[in-house]
Amino acid sequence: MDIILSIVGLLFVLTGIIGSFLPILPGPPISWVGLLLLYLTKAVEDNWWVLGITLVIALLVFVLDYIIPAMGTKRFGGSRKGMVGTTIGLIVAIFFPVLGIFGIIIWPFVGALIGELFNKTDSKMATKAAFGSFLGFLTGTFLKFIVAVVYLGIYIKVFVEHADAIFSF
């Protein structure tokens, strides 16, 4: 049973990393569930401090992911349409990787710009607002990614320390 919990936990942690980029999946909370599954194995001793602190961080980042893009948008005079455009641009980048790795950066900005152009007639102001929407999106995504990768590091460290006990029958 420990092996199954470890494998499913690793899948959750990896899914959390992917979820850092996808607006549909809450990356850090999913990664935290992976840590929880590892700590539920009989081989790994309970460490409620680690689980509690990582849960608080995951939930804090989850909430900040909604606040940071709005702050960036507001700071640069953006609108909700710009934020929606950023998300649509991200989805386009994921499902139509025309520009390769640069698409994940270019398409959200293009989406934000189009969203702001729908909202404002002045292209200069729309470009500035799109930059704010995009900057907020990048900041939130980077924060989620860093937390999810740190959780992967914690998972690997704990797993390696207890691998013998996990794989013992």
UniProtKB/TrEMBL annotation:
Query: Looking at the Swiss-Prot or TrEMBL record, what is one Pfam family this protein matches?
Result: DUF456
The keyword Nucleotidyltransferase is assigned to this record: no
Q: Which residues form a coiled coil?
A: none
Q: Which UniProt keywords apply?
A: Membrane, Transmembrane, Transmembrane helix
Question: Which positions, given as ranges, span the membrane?
Answer: 7-28, 48-68, 88-110, 130-154
Look up the domain of life of the source: Bacteria
Query: Would you tell me the protein name for this molecule?
Result: Membrane protein
Name its species.
Mangrovimonas yunxiaonensis
Q: What lineage, starting at the top, does this entry show? A: Bacteria, Pseudomonadati, Bacteroidota, Flavobacteriia, Flavobacteriales
